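Two proteins were folded this term; both appear here.
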Amino acid sequence: QDIDMNDTIVCDDDYKVIEAVNENECNESTIAYTDNDELLGDSTIYFDASASTDGDGSKSKPYKVFKWNRISSKSTVYFANGEYTLDNKKSLYSSFQSLKFVGQSKENTIFTSNFDNGNEITVFDNVKFTVSDMTLNGFHLYNSYGTIDATNVIFQNEIQTGSGGAIYSYGSAG
């Protein structure tokens, strides 16, 4: 049975799938959500702050608004040029494994934190967080035995009041 791209199908009791072509496509590369609408599994996710509506995270219908519950372990998240705001602080524990944030350009892809005391993203226990080609405005990244790889990133207005600067690293995974 063919499924409309806006339909939701249930693959098993643990997760539902959006963007499946048919019921036989319940596999690791499909975008899967829990009953609480939290994303599961490996995925590639797209955001575009200038999108006319908040889509489904696909390349053709990107999300407009950033929310952590749209991000899963081993995700690669692409951000088109625009301004995004962090909705919550996030701790990436070993069950998260890895996360990549990739902006369109370091000058025009701007991710802002409005929290007062830093540690917007904390990386623990062998997790690898990669960020590239964007501006992190008001961010403080904290590393505790994980790995943070920042390439072609502008850190501005960093307001950490404790230890470290834009990135504080306590121990390393390797």
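Next, the second protein.
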Amino acid sequence: RGSYPEALAQLASVSAAALSPQERHRARYLYGHTALRLKRYPEALQAFGEVISQYPALADYAIWNVARIHQELNAERPYVETLRLLLARFPQSRLVPQARLALGRQLISVNGQLTEGVRVLEEFVAQHPQEPSTPEAYLWLGQGYERIGWHDKAMQTYRTLYVRFPASSEAERA
């Protein structure tokens, strides 16, 4: 909401010696986030890479932001690999639902890896039934079933979507 170029300059000028290790890592994360907002991807990737390797408390968020960079650059393979890394290394992260949905959507819509995409989305709806994005996951899951040729499963999934989330925009599209 503020001036990202100014924030980036201030973060770059902070003396690392004046900060505790925790403050240094948090400042580095903020630097990466600010560089991402400014589309300065090489700087953001370097900062997030340092956070991932040195500060586990924010590593899941750093990995998520690395995935976002790959997505913005249309780097499909690194995007998928980074989402898989997040899910493997941080299965309890608050970002898991978002990462699962993003991975399932990417595998079904872009990569054509339908079976894996369906598996990821089946995990999503089973493990995150109350997430705000659950209707979207059901819609993508139904589309994945359709593309595989499992029309009965697709219809059942769309029916579940309509019954559980009748007011959602996804139910209208199903």
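The chain has a mean pLDDT of 94. The radius of gyration is 19 Å. These notes refer to the second protein only.
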